[in-house]
Write a sequence for this structure.
């Protein structure tokens, strides 16, 4: 089973833009059981907090599938803090979790994960990851 950590922006984009790469990733791969999402208490809290922000309510947030995704995720403890600083401190826990789990990280904000802080973690955009999945 392929392990993947989804940045919160992928969750939000999947809910906002049906038919987009993030939505296809969640609907066709994650919810269909072809990918195993890895979460931790901090990531779950982040997903829920962002999905409940008032600015997303008019879009029907939180998405109906979010709790199912969380329930079916591989839940790990919060990883140790990441040793390298990134452009956005709220993003590095996703990198630490991916590293701990041996998973790839999928994000819509590649610039928040420069090569210099990845420490061997593969970081791809949703469309890059979908292309990888369909090439296999």
């Amino acid at each position: 089973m392929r392990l993947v950590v989804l940045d919160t922006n992928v969750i939000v984009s999947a809910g906002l833009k049906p038919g987009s790469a993030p939505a296809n990733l969640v609907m066709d791969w994650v919810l269909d059981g072809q990918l195993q999402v890895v979460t931790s208490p901090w990531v779950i809290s982040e997903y829920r907090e962002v999905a409940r922000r008032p600015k997303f309510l008019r879009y029907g947030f939180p998405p109906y599938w979010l709790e199912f995704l969380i329930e079916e995720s591989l839940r790990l403890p919060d990883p140790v803090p990441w040793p390298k600083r990134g452009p956005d401190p709220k993003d590095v826990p996703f990198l630490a979790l991916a590293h701990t789990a041996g998973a790839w990280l999928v994000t819509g904000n590649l610039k928040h994960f420069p090569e210099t802080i990845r420490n061997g973690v593969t970081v791809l955009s949703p469309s890059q990851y979908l292309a990888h999945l369909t090439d296999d």
Notes: The chain has one domain: 2-135. Strands lie at 2-6, 35-39, 74-75, 104-106, 123-124. Residues 2 and 35 are 5 Å apart (CA to CA). Helices lie at 8-16, 21-30, 41-51, 54-57, 66-72, 92-101, 115-118, 126-135.
